[in-house]
Each structure stands twice: as structure tokens, then as C-alpha cells.
Amino acid sequence: MLTTQQKASNGTITWQHFIYEKLTDDAFKMTFEVSRDGNTWHMVDYLVFNRMSAG
Question: What is the pLDDT of residue 8?
């Protein structure tokens, strides 16, 4: 998991989580979440990555 902070021009901070989860030997899932307080998280989106054969 990767956690970052982003400060807005009005001084508020938005926290961001990038969560990486292995699904199989050839696939993983990345989930993106945000939080305004660093405690309550809301999922924004997710992507599933699949290894492609060279071929």
C-alpha cells in the first residue's frame, strides 16, 4: 500500500491510498481510495492488470 497526502490551495489535506493486491501469478489489482481525515476511506476506482504473453 502506498499512502500520500495532497494539500489544496485552501489548506485542506486529502489523503490517498493506492492498494496493490496480487490476484494470480499473472494479474494484480490496484485500488485507489481517498480520505479527508486519514481514517475514513472511500474507494474511487480500481484497475486489474494482466500480464500479456509476448507473442
Answer: 86
Residues of 4-13 as b/e, b for ≥16 C-beta within 10 angstroms?
A: eeeeeeeeee
Can you say whether the dihedral through the CA atoms of 16, 41, 32, 14 is positive or negative?
negative
Alpha-helical (H) ranges within 1-55 are none
Cα(19)–Cα(31) distance, integer angstroms: 5
pLDDT tens for each residue of 4-38: 999 988 999 999 999 999 999 999 999 999 999 99
Q: What is the pTM of this model?
A: 0.80
Q: d(Cα 49, Cα 34) in Å, to the nearest integer? A: 21
Query: Where do we find the cell 493486491?
Result: 21
